[in-house]
Recover the amino acids of this structure.
């Protein structure tokens, strides 16, 4: 089986061939940390984390770098509004970002470099571009000579002439050409700043990623990824900077995820429909949010609504219920579950085929539901051998884990003896047809945050989310 990925650069699916056998060097553009992330920011975090997990499942060692832009115009504006320093705001929202994506079960990056911690490399990179004639200083600013890079526009598939029509020179800019973009910005009074050969200032947005890729992954990497909104100008400018300096491809594969819409409308502050992950995961199980994001192949647009997310709650709940019922049934067969049913290999093959097709998580999730359906049939029969149930449990656990979906209930690993005793009292009351007493016990448990579920395999209980 061969993994194929859709390369934005060539606009086609290509067989993935790593630069170094068994290793993947991957860079994913991270957030500008001036506020909590919204659901649109969460999508690349989830989908490219899933791609990383799949590479690891296939035996690759993945060096996964994702940056934090911790100084730019929006951070400076937030600093002035809130009367806090730029580093204070950045630290606050880096912490919030890590908490939010951690709740979505996004693995920690190999490293999360910050722009402010990469300043020597950024300044050195700009200096080399000036030395080669691809950049020039003008009154404390430094600009990139866009027309000098002959392949400019190759990622977004636009010509320089097409781009020229929308380009302008703003007041205060000293560009040679409207198409030129800033590598270094001279500091305005009161702004955060660093010393440089061109005067005190700070880097432009695009240059930080070129410098970080070079520092942590090398001149050419396997995969550069991010949202489709980054294709132009951000990734286009990264290519221009890095390839002008290194005379080689910046990345072999460029991967971009599609937009998220809210109730079939573009997410926008002006409309007021921006949904913050910080708020969303207070209302919904974070793993349901992850599951929802993965139900659509990453390149396609995805529509978000409460109705669709509630559907995801039910769908993900069905997977968890089957997994729980397998666990519950297998408790009676400790030590009798040796062996692995050969039927499970067909599920694994179908799952790999789906993920090999440009990380098609939608089709991969369909395989999980087929496993759950067949496992449910097996659970209904008292004659099903424990080894088969164990095999269903193992394959469901293995493949859901590749998608970062935890099916096991984390709250059930530590049982409360008092809860168990109350459940037994309730069952005794029901057997004796003392239904009023049974209802009182259930209400007591509910007030204590214990949720009961009556299943064919017995009473299931769990603690409600805090």
């Amino acid at each position: 089986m061969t993994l194929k990925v859709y390369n934005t650069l060539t606009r086609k699916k290509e067989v993935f061939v790593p630069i170094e056998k068994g290793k993947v060097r991957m860079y994913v553009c991270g957030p500008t940390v001036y506020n909590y992330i919204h659901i649109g920011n969460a999508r690349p975090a989830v989908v490219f984390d899933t791609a990383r997990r799949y590479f690891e499942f296939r035996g690759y060692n993945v060096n996964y770098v994702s940056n934090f832009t911790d100084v730019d115009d929006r951070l400076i504006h937030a600093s002035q509004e809130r009367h806090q320093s730029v580093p204070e705001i950045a630290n606050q929202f880096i912490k919030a970002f890590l908490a939010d994506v951690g709740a979505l079960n996004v693995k920690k990056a190999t490293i999360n470099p910050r722009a402010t911690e990469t300043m020597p490399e950024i300044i050195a990179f700009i200096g080399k571009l000036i030395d080669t004639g691809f950049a020039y200083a003008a009154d404390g600013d430094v600009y990139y000579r866009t027309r000098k890079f002959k392949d400019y526009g190759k990622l977004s598939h636009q010509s320089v002439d097409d781009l020229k029509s929308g380009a302008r020179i703003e007041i205060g800019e000293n560009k040679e050409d409207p198409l030129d973009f800033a590598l270094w910005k001279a500091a305005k009074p009161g702004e955060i700043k660093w010393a440089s050969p061109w005067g005190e200032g700070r880097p432009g947005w695009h240059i930080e990623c070129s410098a970080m890729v070079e520092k942590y992954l090398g001149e050419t990497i396997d995969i550069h990824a991010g949202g489709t909104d980054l294709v132009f100008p951000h990734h286009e400018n990264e290519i221009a900077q890095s390839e002008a300096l290194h005379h080689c491809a910046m990345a072999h594969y460029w991967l971009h995820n599609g937009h998220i819409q809210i109730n079939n409308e573009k997410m926008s502050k002006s409309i007021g429909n921006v949904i913050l992950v910080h708020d969303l995961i207070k209302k919904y199980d974070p793993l349901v949010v992850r599951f929802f994001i993965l139900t659509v192949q990453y390149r396609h647009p995805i529509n978000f609504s409460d109705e669709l997310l509630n559907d995801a709650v039910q769908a993900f709940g069905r997977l968890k219920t089957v997994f729980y019922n397998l666990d519950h049934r297998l408790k009676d067969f400790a030590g009798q579950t040796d062996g692995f049913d050969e039927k499970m290999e067909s599920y694994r093959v179908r799952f790999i085929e789906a993920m090999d097709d440009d990380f098609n998580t939608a089709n991969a999730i369909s395989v999980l539901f087929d496993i759950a359906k067949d496992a449910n049939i097996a659970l209904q029969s008292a004659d099903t051998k424990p080894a088969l149930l164990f095999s269903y449990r193992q394959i469901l656990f293995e493949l859901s884990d590749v998608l970062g979906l935890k099916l096991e209930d984390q709250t059930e690993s530590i049982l409360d003896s008092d809860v168990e005793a109350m459940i037994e009292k309730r069952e005794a009351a029901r057997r004796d047809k003392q239904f009023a007493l049974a209802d009182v016990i259930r209400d007591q448990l509910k007030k204590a945050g214990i949720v009961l579920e009556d299943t064919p395999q017995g009473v299931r209980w769990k603690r409600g989310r805090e």
